[in-house]
Amino acid sequence: MKPAQLKQLSYLCFILGFASIIGSIAIWFLAGGQEPETQAHAERFGIFTGLWAPTFFALSNRLDRFAEKAA
User: Fold this and answer.
1) 13, 37, 53, 65 from 10: Cα distances, Å
2) CA distances from 59 to 28, 40, 47, 62 (A)
3) How confident is the model over 46-68, as pLDDT tens digits?
4) Are the C-beta atoms of residues 53 and 22 closer than 8 Å to each other?
5) Residues near 18 by beta carbon (within 8 Å), at least 6 away in sequence
C-alpha cells in the first residue's frame, strides 16, 4: 500500500476508536430499560462495544508507523 493510503487508514482507525467509546456510552444509556435483565444486557453490550476502542487505537498507531516507514 502507498503511504498516503496507510495514513488514511490510520486516521480512520483513530476515529473509529473514539466512535467505539461514544457508541459504548450511548448503548449503555439508551438501550437500558426498566427491567434488570434489559439493563444488564445493555451494560454488557456497551462494554463489548467499548472493548474495540483499544484495538482501533493500536491499529491506528501501527498503520501510522508503517506509513512513516514507507515514506
Assistant:
1) 5, 38, 13, 9
2) 25, 30, 20, 5
3) 999 999 999 999 999 999 999 99
4) no
5) 53
For 71, the grid coordinates are 515514506
Residue in the structure block whose three cell numbers are 434488570: 36
Model pTM? 0.85
C-alpha–C-alpha distance, residues 67 and 23, integer Å: 28
Q: What is the pLDDT of residues 5-34, one digit of tens each?
A: 999 999 999 999 999 999 999 998 888 778
- Residue pair 6/67 in contact by the 8 Å Cβ criterion: yes
Q: Which residue has the cell 439508551?
A: 30
